[in-house]
Amino acid sequence: RQVAGHAIFQELWIAGVDQGNTCARLPTSNSPVTDVGSTAIRCNGRPGIASKCTVAAGETVTVEMHQQPGDRSCKNEAIGGAHYGPVTVYLSKVADASTADGSAGWFKIFQDGWSSKSGSSVGDDDNWGTKDLNTCCGKMNLKIPSDIPAGDYLLRAEALALHTAAQLDGAQFYMTCYQITVTGGGAASPALVSFPGAYKASDPGIHINIHATVSTYIVPGPTVYAGGSTKSAGAACVGAENSTPGPATPSATGKTPSTHGRRRNVISGERGYPRRRVCCKED
């Protein structure tokens, strides 16, 4: 069952080239995981698939989120219903990404968290990673660390919605695991955390009332690995995200998003890349 406002990370881009959902362990529903002690917090409870995406160490990849399966329209919010919170990405080194169950250790390679917004009186009005997803047509760019060993990895993209997080266990986690094979790289050995284990329901970045004033915010989990990347919440879109037409029209929770027609590719040559297909428009 697909719910309006909820969302799924669905597609992956590598160096600006759209891989679609070929290496994504797609969730069967766009509903969240709320139990941080469940093994579903790893990869949304999804088993492995046959396909993997190959990416060079040090390369930029883009994760892409939308509310409904197959809807890549920039006219709809990527995640709706005032689902505000941080966006994070983790990697887990595994023997075979197509069979790994997510029990191996993880390290964080990206986050887009929170920043205060001038004139705001409540956290809802501040800048958040999920707001950046909405502004950037569901896309978020991040760097694969250049010094990690070659081999198979699970790449776990997560959006955390905090609109009901004032109550314990009210936070909503939306995650998808992508199966990738990293080439090149080095011999780094990042510190690892486990899922479940990295989060506690009582963590200040998980159990929080964003409908009141937020003076500081700590993104859940470990710090970003030194070879990774961060985005300042509220900062402009970069790279493939620049191909989008701007912020989507907010959708109310419980309202079914509209259905649009077939898409045509838009061509862009962002950030020095050759001109490639980078987003979509509606016919």
TrEMBL record:
A family per Pfam: AA9
Localization (cell): Secreted
Molecular function terms from GO: cellulase activity; cellulose binding; metal ion binding; monooxygenase activity
Limits of the Auxiliary Activity family 9 catalytic domain: 6-213
GO BP annotations, alphabetical order: cellulose catabolic process
Principal location: secreted
Domain of life according to the entry: Eukaryota
Catalyses which reaction(s): [(1->4)-beta-D-glucosyl]n+m + reduced acceptor + O2 = 4-dehydro-beta-D-glucosyl-[(1->4)-beta-D-glucosyl]n-1 + [(1->4)-beta-D-glucosyl]m + acceptor + H2O
Domain observations: Has a modular structure: an endo-beta-1,4-glucanase catalytic module at the N-terminus, a linker rich in serines and threonines, and a C-terminal carbohydrate-binding module (CBM).
The protein's name: AA9 family lytic polysaccharide monooxygenase
Annotated organism of origin: Hyaloscypha variabilis (strain UAMH 11265 / GT02V1 / F)
Lineage: Eukaryota, Fungi, Dikarya, Ascomycota, Pezizomycotina
